[in-house]
Amino acid sequence: MVRFSFAGAEMAALVPGALGWPARRALLVADLHLEKASYYAAGGQMLPPYDTHATLRDLAALVDATGAQEVWCLGDSFHDAAGCERLADDTRALLRGLTARTRWTWIAGNHDVAAVRLADHCGGEVVGEADVDGLLLRHEADPAETRPELSGHFHPKLRLTLRGRHVARRCFVATATKLILPAFGALTGGLDAGHPVIRAAVAGRPAEALVPLADRLLRFPIAA
Question: 195: closest CA among 204, 186, 183?
Answer without folding.
Answer: 204
